[in-house]
Amino acid sequence: MMGEAKLTLVAPLEPAASLDAAAVETALPALLSSYRPHDSLFSSVQTQWHARGVLHALARASDDDLAGASERLLAQVAAENGRLPLLGAVPFEGGQPARLWVPAQAAFAAGRARHGGAAQLLPGDARSAPQVEPVPAPAQFKRNVERSLDRIHDGGLRKVVMSRSLRIAAKVDVPQLLGQLLARAPSAYTFAMDLAGAGGSAACLIGSSPELLLSKRGARIVSNPLAGSIPRSADPAEDRRRAEDLLRSAKDLHEHALVIDDVAAALRPFCRELHVPAAPSLLATPTMWHLSTRVDGVLRDPATSSLRLALALHPTPAVCGYPTEPARQAIRELEGYDRGLFTGLVGWCDSEGDGEWAVTIRCALVEEDCATVFAGAGIVAGSQPEAELAETTAKLRTMLGAMGLSHVAESEGRA
Known about the structure:
Layout: E1 7-11, H1 24-27, E2 40-43, E3 47-52, E4 56-58, H2 66-81, E5 86-90, E6 99-102, E7 105-110, H3 125-128, E8 131-135, H4 138-154, E9 159-169, H5 174-184, E10 189-194, E11 204-209, E12 212-217, E13 220-224, E14 226-231, H6 236-248, H7 250-267, E15 271-275, E16 281-284, E17 288-292, E18 295-299, H8 306-313, E19 321-322, H9 324-334, E20 345-349, E21 355-359, E22 363-366, E23 371-379, H10 385-402, H11 406-411
Helix pairs in contact: 4-10
C-alpha cells in the first residue's frame, strides 16, 4: 500500500469524471491496493508508478538507437497527452527487442509502495511438490564455472557472470506476490511489468532488485552497482562474521573494483562532476550481503535522458563480466539458455529525462501455468564452483521464498 505521500494523478485509472482533484486521495489511497492483473507497477524508496493499458509500444532493440527513439516518442506523447512515462524492460542482449511502452493510464506517487499484509501464495499441492526444470542443471552450472575459470586463467577474461534458471510448473498470483516482495524488501526496486501489451508474450516480469543501474533527477544522477556477495546466515554472530569477511575478501574486492571502474568510465563523459567512493560499503538484503558503491554525478547536459545513460552502462561487469565482449561471448557459449530480460534493465523514464532503471535481477517471468526464476554469480580468479552454486541458490530464495517455495531452492541447489 502507499505511504502517506501525496498522490499526483498523471492519467486517472478510472474515468476522469469520477475523480476530481479533491477526491484523488480518497479514490486512490494506495496504488498497490488498486493493482489488478495485467497492470504494471514500479516502486522504489523515492517513487512509484502504477500503469494500465498501452498508448504506444516501443519494441526496438537497444542496438538500434533505442534511446533516441524513446526520446522522440516521449516528446510526442508530452505534446499530445501530457507527461506520461515510458516504462518496461530492456533485455540483456542488445540485439533483442526491448519491451517498453507508454501506458494509456498511469498514477504517480512520491515514496515507495507498502504491502497490504502477509499474503500466502501457491496453496496446496503447488506448494508441496511442484515440477521443476533447472536450466542448466546444478552439475552443469558448476562445469560452466570451471570452464569460465579456464578462460580467466588463459588471460582472455578477468570476470564472467554465469547464471542458471528454474522453470516451475505452478500458478502464481502476481498481486499477492507483489505484496510479499514489498513486505520482505521494502527498500528494493520492486516491479511487475505486464509484457503482453508491449508486443511480448502473455507474461509478467516481476521482481525485487537490490541494484540501481541509474537514476536521474534534473542534472543529478546516481548509480549503485553491487558486486561481491555472500549468503546471509540466520545466526546473528555468523551473519556478522560473513559480512566482515566479505569486506576483507581480496577476491570480492577485486570483482567489485572491476565493476566500479567500468561504471565510472562509462559515466564520466556525461558528467561535469562525478564522485566515486574509495571503498565499498555493505548492502544487506533478506538473503544476501553485497559489496555496494554509490556513484553520484552532475550531468554536463541535464536534458540527457536516464534511459540513454542506463544504456551507456548496460551491461555492467556486475551482470556480464569484463572485458564486456569476451564475457558476453562466454555467456552465449557456456550458459545454455537465453536470458531474455534477466540481467537487463527495468524501470521508467519521463519526457524530461528523469527516471529510474534497476538491474533486472531477483526476478521471475510469470506465465499462465509456470514461473521461471533466475540467479547468477560473478566468476573471477579464486572462485570455487561449489561456492558459486551456493550463491545462486541463496539468490533464488528471494523469489522462491516470496512464492512459498523456499524448499525448491535447496533441493535444486544440489548437484
